[in-house]
Amino acid sequence: MDLLFEDTGYFDLTTYGLEIGDKNGLMTFAPKDEIVLCGVDEVRKILQKLNIQHTFFKKNGDLLHSHEILLVCKADAGALHKAWKISQNIFEYMSGIATYTSRLVKNAKAINPNISISTTRKNFPGAKEIMLKAVMCGGGVPHRLGLFDSILIFEQHLNFFTDKAELEKSFKKLKHEFIEKKIAVEVENFQQAKYFASLGANILQCEKMDFELLKECVALKKEFPHLLLSATGGIHEENIADFTKCGVDFIVTSSPYHAKPVDIKVKIEEER
């Protein structure tokens, strides 16, 4: 998708009608509040496409204070107005995800410095690359890029087995054939957790468990030292600390994808 054409189309009727397109101008970007910046690469491509002279003062992942200028652009008014809104939108949405993720990471690591915060496949379709990039700018990591990069067994897979012996045979074959991959299984109760740990699962993804049940599953690490456990389902900024206290190795969440965009102020004026 051509993001620039999506917004500008064939004409900027307002700039054209006011006959200001050839006048030289300055455009600056600055956040209204403290943010973690993301979107620099995407905005740079737009500015380059429009031949806009520009200077970035910050890079992806940087912490910006309120009203701290991150970008200055120089060009004719026609080019600046074409770049304005799409660039602002990119910064606001991507930095919103990065800033929210950063808060999640900070809250969790204050309790367990070694914990990892991962995000799910529940990104908006078509926006995976920029959403995951924003998560990583905020200190998070992708849980799964897609079906192709990791093995995660859900109830929806298990429903195709009517016999436990058949399941165990397939599980053993899976582990043997994909020996380089860790085998993760989503579990909803302690019985499932212990069963799949005994089969040799590397990761138990504990789905929507209360804190006491989650702690009980984490205790399986004493019997199965190789085991890693994650908590997932309904985890957000307000409760991530409580889930971290249960002793899981990592948190899996979709909440950064729903983060509120930050507010980036854009100022355009004539260069005199």
Summarize the structure.
The protein has 272 residues and is of the alpha/beta class. The chain has helices at residues 3-8, 13-18, 40-49, 77-109, 128-137, 155-158, 164-177, 190-199, 211-218, 240-244, and strands spanning 24-31, 35-36, 53-56, 63-64, 71-76, 116-119, 141-142, 151-153, 183-187, 203-207, 228-232, 250-253, 264-270.
Annotation keywords:
7-stranded parallel sheet; 4-stranded antiparallel sheet; single chain; alpha/beta; 272 residues; elongated; TIM Barrel; Aldehyde Oxidoreductase, domain 3; 10 helices
Notes on the structure:
With 272 residues, the chain is of the alpha/beta class. It folds into 2 domains: 3-105 and 260-270, Aldehyde Oxidoreductase, domain 3 (Alpha-Beta Complex); 113-256, Aldolase class I (TIM Barrel, Alpha-Beta Barrel), CATH 3.20.20. Helices cover 39% and strands 21% of the residues. The strands form 3 sheets. The protein has a 7-stranded parallel β-sheet with strand order 7-6-12-11-10-9-8. Strands 3-5-1-13 form a 4-stranded antiparallel β-sheet, covered by helices on one side. Strands 2-4 form a two-stranded antiparallel sheet. α3 (40-49) packs antiparallel against α4 (77-109) and α4 crosses α5 (128-137). The protein starts with a helix and ends with a strand. The mean pLDDT is 96.
CATH architecture of the largest domain: Alpha-Beta Barrel
CATH level 1 class label of the largest domain: Alpha Beta
Helix tally equals 10
**Distance linking N and C termini:** 36 Å
Q: What is the gyration radius calculated from CA atoms?
A: 24 Å
| Overall pLDDT confidence | 96
Q: Might you state the CATH topology name of the largest domain?
A: TIM Barrel
Counting structural domains, the number is 2
- Structural class call reads alpha/beta
CATH superfamily caption of the largest domain: Aldolase class I
- Work out the helicity level: 25-40%
How many strands?
A: 13
Coarse morphology: elongated
Numbering strands along the chain, what is their spatial order in the largest sheet? Answer: 7-6-12-11-10-9-8
The largest β sheet comes out as:
7 strands, parallel
